[in-house]
Each structure stands twice: as structure tokens, then as C-alpha cells.
Amino acid sequence: MGGIMSKKRRKVKTRESQSRARALPWLGSGGLHALVPGNAPSPETLDQMTRVYQQNIRESPVWNQMVREFGEKEAERILREFRVEIR
Fold first, then answer.
1. pTM (two decimals)
2. Is the pLDDT reported for residue 71 higher than 60?
3. Least confident interval from 6-15, 24-33, 51-60, 77-86
4. Nearest residue to 53 via CA among 25, 14, 19
5. 15 near 21, Cβ under 8 Å?
6. What is the torsion angle, in degrees rounded to the nearest 10, for the CA atoms of residue 3, residue 6, residue 8 and residue 13?
7. How many domains does the chain have?
8. Is residue 49 in a domain?
9. What is residue 21's predicted lDDT score, i.e. its pLDDT?
10. Residue 24 lies inside a defined structural domain of this protein
């Protein structure tokens, strides 16, 4: 009897960990990546996500460092390359 309950617990844990693993982002050579279930967002939603992402960068210490290292004009140009993409 104990063996059956153990197997059920293991199956539940496996499904839960697989579900969580799909939502965990990772940093790769092409930037920050994440696999999430669902339908792809619309182009308008991607643009809005990009604007929010860029604003978050502007409000972070990273932005101040970019401006110090590259100047404001170049930092703005670099920031425009920070985009949310679906691949």
C-alpha cells in the first residue's frame, strides 16, 4: 500500500516541477529566454511589452551605467535594441 501512495506523490511532484520549469527564464547568448505555455501575443502586445521592458531598464541602475559608459545618445540607441521577441 505504501508503494502505491509513493508513486502517486512522485507523479504529482514531477508534473509540478515540469510545469514550473517551463516558466523559468534563462540567460543565453541571444538574451533572456523563457518558455511559457499559451498563445503568442499580438504584435501590439509585444510592442507594449517592449515599452515596459525599456522603461524598466531606464529606471534601473543599469541605465545609469550605460549613460556613464556610452553617453545618453548612444545609451538610447542601445536601449532601442532591448526588445521583447517571440522566436
1. 0.62
2. yes
3. 6-15
4. 25
5. no
6. -160
7. 1
8. yes
9. 47
10. no
Q: Are 78 and 66 in contact (CB under 8 A)?
A: yes
Q: Decide if 1 is inside a domain.
A: no
pLDDT for residue 86 is more than 50: yes
More confident residue, 58 or 17: 58
Q: What is the mean pLDDT of the chain?
A: 81
Q: What letter represents residue 4's amino acid? A: I
- Cβ-Cβ contacts under 8 Å for 83 (sequence gap 6 or more): 50, 53
What whole-number distance in Å separates Cα of residue 16 and Cα of residue 8? 12
The residue range of the domain holding 64 is 39-87
Q: What is the DSSP string of 10-59?
A: HHHHHHHHHHHHHH--EEETTEEE----SPPPPHHHHHHHHHHHHHHHHT
Which residue's entry shows cell 507523479?
11
- Judge whether 4 lies within some domain: no
3-state secondary structure of 1: coil
